[in-house]
């Protein structure tokens, strides 16, 4: 066996103009990474070059992914480039798989300078699907815009990358592997870790596992159905919910990570988790949940498939927050939601006199508030919920939060939600997604829409649908000034706010790999009519939203791809 030090090479390359990280990193079709020479290498080098050499030298970086196609190929390249770029130690999940919440946990636990997450979240996988790379910084959260801008600028001018092509790592064996590199004083270390254990240990310190075990496997236990959608969270569900908390093994389905997520779209909503919804309808299960590819998003269902909107979910957790022991110890510093999320959380914040922050979409905005000690619980309408235990949304945490509420209150999911509406009123909320729309048509529509709502004459305008009349009170392009560091984030979504508090919001999403996704959000508050059908209640506002934007005409679409 050759024990000579491994060679470090500097390889010339040419830049690509399209490596700007979006809200959740760089996402492209798999074939883009496979077919464009050094496309992956360029972006990884841009990440490493964005970190000051003094900080990088001898540092620890965490690496893991959701197990999608191209995951292992990318990890091999990242290992070879990390070694060549002076990183001292890599911590990698067993088989290269680690959920996004677990990566955030491990970054914080090992005081790493950051982590590289290989995921396209809820986007499809497989050779014809999507692949993504996201960089999280030392706080365990997504890199802020200043960092992602720096990565992008480097990617536009990159001329070479450093790599150690002879380095081969074994992802199947737990433990440390060391490698000697030429011109390096200390060996390079790769540590393959049980990615579930650190995360499970963190959850044991947040929740009352004895109470949860009683709820799930005690004398009067409830029956649950959990769908991991063949994503990274499957092993976590098996270990924590089944092995530790006593759920029968058949409570958890699709728990083996698969490169193409079993040919499914790993997105926990009523459209893509339809199998779970159908299995809940006959009433044999009291509680259901689904997760996305990398385990940070969640969907909550009650008996007979009763759907809890993500906006209501975070509001209910906020109202019952002391059912979770962690918050009994830490207290509650603040609540936050993304701007498109319904204002249900605002009502709880007002009643409990707890500060409420309204931020742009993107978990990094919550992380900044958490790092400053201002925020304890937050959520997004896009099926993301989390606390300040890490700096990412956390699907399994949200499920254990709900189960903690069920264990304390001993009511059904539906009864808990109906009680909440009786107490606070109800924010009816829906989102229409128009996916893979022509980018030029979408941008043109948004530009024209912004011009229209910016006109002073637009405010006070009235829109009548059937017997309802809505008067515009305010219209703008949402802008956020961070209360911690005063950074300003502009152009975060077009808002039309009516005099009764109802809102219509238009956004172009930054999480797709192909075409544009136009999103319309509709939020309307009712104090009295709280048990009606959401789509019926919001139909007048939906009509107005389409009329104002002329979306169907402008995009050539007759209807949305997904309604949530």
Automatic annotation (TrEMBL):
GO molecular function, one term: magnesium ion binding
Gene3D superfamilies assigned to the protein according to its UniProt record, in alphabetical order: Alpha-D-Glucose-1,6-Bisphosphate, subunit A, domain 3, Alpha-D-phosphohexomutase, C-terminal domain
Superkingdom, natural source: Eukaryota
Stored CDD domains: PGM1
Manganese keyword on record: no
Range of residues in the leader sequence: none
GO biological process: carbohydrate metabolic process
UniProt KW Cell wall biogenesis/degradation keyword: no
Segments forming domain Alpha-D-phosphohexomutase alpha/beta/alpha: 19-160, 198-303, 328-424
Similarity-based family: Belongs to the phosphohexose mutase family.
NCBIfam families from the UniProt entry: PRK07564.1-1
Protein name: Phosphoglucomutase-1
Native species: Lates calcarifer
